[in-house]
Design a protein that fits this description.
Length: 80
């Protein structure tokens, strides 16, 4: 698991910061209390890897819904 090593934790923090600390599905903040799960854009069984470009941090419920619907998670369009 990524969180078990310093290198893994660093990658998770960078991913979290790259997403502006928010879940790309619901746009709500990801916090320690909300929890999170890693979502692979291309599933590992379909040849996906653990590279940061293939990963998104989602809330557990958002992850469950995204997996059930088998759709890709895209970055939300933020209005300025």
């Amino acid at each position: 698991m990524m969180a078990d090593s310093l290198k893994g934790r660093t990658r998770l923090i960078r991913l979290w910061l790259a997403q502006d600390r928010a879940c790309p599905v619901c746009c709500q903040m990801i916090t320690k209390s909300s929890g999170w799960r890693l979502f692979h854009e291309i599933r590992k069984i379909d040849g996906g890897t653990d590279v940061v470009g293939n990963l998104k941090m989602l809330h557990p419920d958002c992850h469950r819904n995204a997996r059930a619907l088998r759709h890709s998670v895209v970055e939300p369009a933020y209005s300025l």
